[in-house]
Amino acid sequence: MLCQLTASEARRQIADGLITSQQLVQACLDRIAETDAGIGAWVHLDAENALAQARDLDDLRRKGQTLGPLHGVPVGLKDIFDVKDMPTECGSPARKGTIAEIDCPVAAKLREAGAVIMGKTVTTEFAFLNPADTSNPHNHAHTPGGSSSGSAAAVAAGHVPLAIGSQTNGSTVRPASFCGIFGFKPTRGMISRTGVLQTSVTLDQVGVFGRSLEDVSALADALSGYDPRDPASLPRPLPSATAGLARQPLVEPDLVWLDMPFHDRLTDDARSGLDDILAALGDRIERIEAPKSVAALVEHQKTVHEYEIAHHLADDFERHWDLISETLKPVVERGRAYSDQQYAEALSMVAGAEDFFEQFFHDYDGVIAPSAAGEAPLKTDGTGDPVFCTVWTTAGLPALNLPLLSGSAGLPIGVQLIGSGERDDHLMTTAQWLLASMAANE
């Protein structure tokens, strides 16, 4: 089925003239029509416009013009990214009817790379706690995770080969784990956040979803670049994840597992699967207890996130308090109650984490960690615990979900691999080695 191609396979077949972008887009639209009533991955889908984009891209190929790295490949964007003439409603009735006037840099770079923007995928309320109604494609009674619910579900369901999400805590890696796909959050500052809902100027980061390491690498590279409008954007040459995939490690990587106090939240399935992976790695992995300052980042992240969302979205909360869910209201009230001093202290600890990990990765090529507590919980139990991503997100480190495990209910369980900041290429080199090592041990 065309809709099940990886993005990399699809791009090659389009470039070789074996298929057209129109055929691929139509196959994806047919798949959405067939399955999305039970999944609910999309909040806005523009079929006519998507086919028009595909026709234009097919014309470029026939004329022999330059093809972009994502030429003709359909992509969905989480509904917090501005796309010209499309709604950006951020999962909240407070933003109902908001139409973007211009593309955000992420959307502009997608067009430059030749991607077909299909529409907007569902997010939780203001990309935070209150669950959306999206279902996990593997079992509709279970959550796909949050807050990038629709993006992860759309890729897993065969609606699109690629999708864009975000991560302020665990909103890319956890949904990728629950949906059994690859999820990649590059180093903080690699991808612009201009024109994207701001819940936390300190913590918000862009993430991507795909069906292979090649997919997420190509998508992340296409989106990366300096943006002077974004205070976190990195004003220097950036690593290429795709180049990292093309390299073999000169020596076998040195990996580490950090025992965290919240690991008691792991399900038996997840713990057993992770133990098997650690055993298979043998002397390639060291197991150590996390320093207290690292484990404490969970509380510092909470302070920063809640303080900043209360202040960044103050206008929405003041003007539309009656439209805010009972799930989000207590968070806003806590955020308002933090003192400036508490916030400043938490920010200081976040900065300290960046310095700590810069030194830490002198000894290791990557950290192996859980992506989530286990299989996706029932939708009635929320979108899952993000704590297994909190430390790495807070420190701004590049992080990958690798779909390596499954649980007793037959649902996916991911394994997280984290790398050193601004060494996203090396993370991909290590990830490819890890996948090959696990395959050899099967």
Concise summary:
This protein has 442 residues and is of the alpha/beta class. Helices cover 40% and strands 14% of the residues. The mean pLDDT is 98.
What this model shows, in words?
The protein has about 450 residues and is an alpha/beta fold. Strands 1-3-2-4-6-5-10-11-9-7-8 form an eleven-stranded mixed beta sheet, with helices on both faces. Strand 10 and strand 11 form a beta hairpin. Helix 2 packs antiparallel against helix 3, helix 11 packs across helix 13 and helix 11 packs across helix 14. The radius of gyration is 20 Å and the shape is globular. The mean pLDDT is about 100.
Strand content: 5-15%
The description of the largest β-sheet is: 11 strands, mixed
| H-E string | HHEHEHEHEHEEHHEHEHHHHHEHEEH
Helix amount:
40-55%
Summing up helix and strand content along with how strands pair, one would put the structural category as alpha/beta
How many beta-strand runs? Answer: 11
Radius of gyration: 20 Å
Total number of helices: 16
- What ranges have pLDDT less than 50 throughout 5 or more consecutive residues? none
> What does the average pLDDT come to?
98
Looking at the chains present, what oligomeric state does this protein adopt?
single chain
The global form is globular
What is the rounded distance between the termini? Answer: 27 Å
Which sequence of strands runs across the widest sheet? 1-3-2-4-6-5-10-11-9-7-8
